[in-house]
Design brief:
Order of helices and strands: HHHHHHHH
Structural class: mainly alpha
Number of domains: 1
Shape: globular
Largest sheet: none
Length: 205
């Protein structure tokens, strides 16, 4: 009896769509763009968020795409765990330069706090990637959702629904196991968001 593969294909398409739309560079870029909201002056200060996104997301992604094209990295999601640490270290180098530029430009402390939270997350992911493949997608969306609620209020709590959706997509596509996405979600929502919260309180007051 033939197997109906239509539901499976539909599920995979949905998972692929969610994975691509909510991939870390996109999520973190939006997170950085709204980070100046924590201080007076927004939207006039959104340019600082855009500058941060350039160094934290756009430049690392551009380098990654070049590496993929050259055959040095499997794909833009860096599916091969062994390739993750070098790619993340490259991202950290770009972010370090970005922090210097932001400091020189007099960026709001809220933007710097967000970038430093991302630095902490990327550093841990790079270290963990040496022996385990924790989900960066789950970490990014969880951190962004929690930070958005903390920054903008309970009305934004529905964003938290995106966390299980992204985790589901990564498991369906067999990019991660359930423990890997759960670990990523907890790391992003608790540790990375916690770093941002502490730094925001310290730097912004």
């Amino acid at each position: 009896m033939p197997v109906n593969t239509v539901p499976l294909r539909a599920k995979n398409r949905a998972a692929t769509w969610i994975t691509e739309v909510f991939q870390p560079p996109v999520v973190v870029s939006i997170q950085l763009l709204i980070s100046p909201l924590a201080e007076p002056g927004f939207p006039g200060t959104i340019g600082y968020g855009a500058l941060a996104a350039l160094f934290v997301c756009v430049l690392p992604l551009a380098v990654l795409l070049v590496l993929v094209r050259l055959g040095k990295v499997t794909d833009h999601h860096v599916s091969d765990r062994k390739q993750r640490a070098p790619v993340l270290l490259m991202a950290l180098a770009c972010i370090a330069v970005g922090l210097l530029v932001l400091a020189a430009a007099g960026a709001p402390h809220s933007v710097v706090a967000m970038v430093l939270a991302v630095v902490g997350g990327v550093a841990v992911l790079a270290a963990v990637s040496l022996f385990w493949k924790m989900s960066g997608h789950a970490a990014a969306i969880s951190c962004a959702a929690v930070v958005s609620v903390l920054m903008l209020g309970a009305a934004w709590a529905p964003l938290l629904v995106l966390v299980p959706a992204v985790c589901w997509s990564r498991v369906v596509l067999r990019a991660h196991t359930l423990p890997q996405v759960v670990a990523g979600a907890l790391f992003g929502g608790v540790v990375m968001a916690g770093i941002w919260w502490l730094l925001r309180g310290w730097l912004v007051g």
